Amino acid sequence: MTYHPKSEFMATIMQRGFLADCTDYQALDEALANGMVTAYIGYDATAKSLHVGHLLNIMLLKWFQKTGHKPITLMGGGTTKVGDPSFRSDERPLLDDHAIAVNIGGMQRVFDRYLDYRKGDNAAVMLNNAEWLDGLNYLEFLRDIGRHFSVNRMLSFESVKSRLDREQSLSFLEFNYMILQAYDFLELNRRYGCLLQMGGSDQWGNIVNGIDLTRRVLDNQIFGLTTPLLSTSDGKKMGKSQGGAIWLNSEMLSPYEFWQFWRNTTDADTGKFLKLYTMLPIEECERLGALEGSEINEAKIILANEVTAMLHGEEAAKAAEQTAREVFEKGGVGDDLPTLALDAAEVADGISLAQLVVRSGLAKSGKDGKRMIADGALKVNDETCTDAGRMFAATDFADPIKLSAGKKRHALVTVA
């Protein structure tokens, strides 16, 4: 696309690689150039923490606010009770009000690290769609809103079509999700003058639904903008690792493990991730991304430090880097390594190496752990051990034991 944007926000996201699609580039760009625009991204409260897969759009909101516009983080207190069926093979488990409130609290701590909810005309706003969804009258909603939706068109959306093509059940509850999300956009436009919904490209159908509904009911022009669904250069879904999701809350994933995830970025992804996940100038991102050989490792450390400092603070980033240098360069035991703390009672009769590998999170199951050990991929205190049945007594833990799976994944085991 050869379009040259007028607004700082559109120019920034196009240059840094955030933009996948937009309903009307030129009209949205004009609105952004002419004054402050309000935009939102919705987040269903399905877990106690957001994960790295959410971070791209959180950074999008950060740039939106930095360039003078007003971001809304919309918590799905209402829509979480239904569950988004988009590109899922099964129905989400239903959560009660208490679980949803706990999850929203955990997610809010992450947003506070990236957005300013306190100062200025463009201070961010956090809303909960339960505010308008919980009190809906079903018959009125069907009459006033449901009549604007074509079932034929809803069935044509890829997120629904792919589920039906695989002959997997799609409940009526889930089928209503796209209507509720469209209604969110209508209400945000009516109540807060919100002109833009942003999200991942898998949300395109839901976003377009909201635009159509708002045009039909309020006769207002609003916009949709999507970001690409990222995968790493080796084809893996962004945010997934051998140990599972890369959570953003420190109690679910330590700052060191978070730092290490970014330090392990492939050479080919380093420049791209610097543009997307840091606030470094674009020229610096391109310079660092172009480094080769051993020099690219310093670019990866800068990436890990920048992303970790933004989420967990400068001290956590420095501690993680120091731990990594101690572990990898000096062969030592870093103070900040993920630690499995066992009670003395748990090792009274001894504990096997296979159990330690699973308990420490270095393997998903006993089978995986035994295979890792048999393959010689596990070290105990920097020495390879191939005996999965090796037993450890309480006296073996006078000093912490370091477990290493390959060169990049480590954990300490202590006994209180």
Automatic annotation (TrEMBL):
It is an enzyme of class 6 (ligase). A motif ('HIGH' region) lies at residues 45-54. ATP binds at K240. GO terms for biological process: tyrosyl-tRNA aminoacylation. Its main location: cytoplasm. Coiled coil: none annotated. InterPro entries: aa-tRNA-synth_Ic (IPR002305), Rossmann-like_a/b/a_fold (IPR014729), S4_RNA-bd_sf (IPR036986), Tyr-tRNA-ligase (IPR002307), Tyr-tRNA-ligase_bac-type (IPR024088), Tyr-tRNA-ligase_bac_1 (IPR024107). L-tyrosine binds at Y40, Y177, Q181. It is found in: Cytoplasm. Its EC number is 6.1.1.1. A motif ('KMSKS' region) lies at residues 237-241. It catalyses: tRNA(Tyr) + L-tyrosine + ATP = L-tyrosyl-tRNA(Tyr) + AMP + diphosphate + H(+). GO terms for molecular function: ATP binding; protein homodimerization activity; RNA binding; tyrosine-tRNA ligase activity. GO terms for cellular component: cytosol. Keywords: Aminoacyl-tRNA synthetase, ATP-binding, Cytoplasm, Ligase, Nucleotide-binding, Protein biosynthesis, RNA-binding. Belongs to the class-I aminoacyl-tRNA synthetase family. TyrS type 1 subfamily. Catalyzes the attachment of tyrosine to tRNA(Tyr) in a two-step reaction: tyrosine is first activated by ATP to form Tyr-AMP and then transferred to the acceptor end of tRNA(Tyr). Homodimer. This is Tyrosine--tRNA ligase. It comes from Marivivens niveibacter.
